[in-house]
Write a structure and sequence with these properties.
Helix content is about 45%, strand content about 0%. By secondary structure, the protein is an all-alpha fold. It is globular. The N terminus is likely disordered.
Length: about 350
């Protein structure tokens, strides 16, 4: 009806007629340009050679999950220096604890403890998250109180149940190490400073990426990289809606979510602590209570126990809890096993020189 009225008006209005024709031509031109762009996005021979399965899982079409990059461009001198500092116990007050004590690279970037152990045998209040691929997280810590890795470095150093030290003590100890101070001068104009210590450790942590997991290879086109069980688990991971929170390149780490969306996790677990308040401890907003940064699922098969409270001892336990409290869906044992098979395919490769 609208087109009929428009044509009727055009008969008696020469100006409108010219405007209409110009806009029509512009629309046609834009349509042709867009068509050309989309048709040239992928080489024609690659599309024709691809199987239905690879097109279905194409990262550019249906999937929000993306493979990790093979490498990153980082300052090599600072990464090497950061590696030394990451494993240096002199950063702790009693020279007993390093960053690697709670974030062991052999244990998936964690310590496989429900609560980490700091200086003087002090037991921490929360489960240590993995340091692997942490550079891809949008914030650091479970409650997101640090935006950058540089900012994150300072927290455990000053925490009295972790490393219990301060910059003045650390710089005094490190300044007596001539070889280390020489490395600082080569890497930084300012030499050995607290800011440069933070930057070096953060540079090293950014380098701790784990590409080439079976799932990454699959996303890049190797359809044989994942077995049938893992592929079925991947189907279920999306069908159940797990990827609504565990999304993007890090398969998590890019949003906050409440623990207990569909049922009251903390009521059932009991013994609520201050750490259970999550993001609320940073913002003071009631709406942020029990919200946490969604953890990355990369290398998750290596990082038990799970959740901020370390309450799930196995990956099967963690998946079972998630389906109940986050999805509110009854999931049978077979599907749990398939989901776990998919998650086991998220274990990547850490460059040997970084270990």
């Amino acid at each position: 009806m609208y087109l009929t009225i428009l044509k009727w008006r055009l008969k008696d209005n020469h100006f409108l007629k010219k405007l209409y024709l110009r806009r029509l031509s512009l629309c046609v031109l834009c349509s042709l340009i867009l068509s050309s762009c989309f048709s040239s996005h992928e080489p024609e021979e690659e599309i024709s050679a691809a199987s239905d399965e690879s097109i279905k899982y194409s990262n550019n079409s249906y999937d929000s999950l993306r493979p990790l990059p093979q490498s990153l461009k980082l300052d090599a001198k600072r990464v090497v220096l950061g590696k030394i500092l990451f494993h240096d116990t002199r950063l702790s007050k009693d020279n007993s604890t390093s960053c690697a004590s709670c974030h062991s690279l052999e244990k998936g970037g964690t310590d496989n403890l429900a609560r980490s152990i700091g200086i003087n045998g002090a037991i921490g209040s929360i489960n240590a998250p993995t340091v692997l691929n942490s550079g891809f997280n949008f914030v650091q810590f479970w409650d997101g109180r640090a935006v950058t890795l540089e900012e994150q470095v300072a927290s455990p150093i000053h925490n009295m149940t972790e490393m219990g030290s301060n910059w003045q003590e650390i710089i005094k100890k490190l300044s007596s190490d001539k070889q280390l101070t020489r490395k600082f001068r080569h890497a930084y104009i300012g030499g050995l400073t607290s800011e440069n210590i933070q930057d070096a450790i953060a540079s090293y942590e950014r380098a701790l990426i784990t590409p080439n997991s079976p799932f990454d290879k699959f996303l890049r086109g190797d359809l044989s990289a994942m077995n049938d069980e893992a592929l079925e688990g991947y189907h279920l991971f999306k069908d159940y809606g797990c990827d609504s929170c565990h999304q993007g390149m890090n398969i998590g780490g890019n949003m906050y979510q409440r623990l207990g969306v569909m049922d009251d996790y903390f009521r059932d677990r009991g013994n609520v602590t201050n750490e259970d308040y999550g993001r609320f401890n940073v913002t003071g907003l009631e709406s942020d209570k029990y919200k946490f940064k969604v953890p990355s699922l990369r290398n998750v098969a290596l990082t038990a126990p799970y959740f901020h409270d370390g309450s799930a001892k196995t990956l099967h336990d963690a998946v079972t809890v998630m389906t109940r409290y986050q999805l509110g869906k009854p999931v049978n044992g077979k599907d749990i096993n398939l989901l776990v098979a998919f998650l086991e395919g998220l274990t990547g490769e850490l460059e040997a020189s970084l270990k």
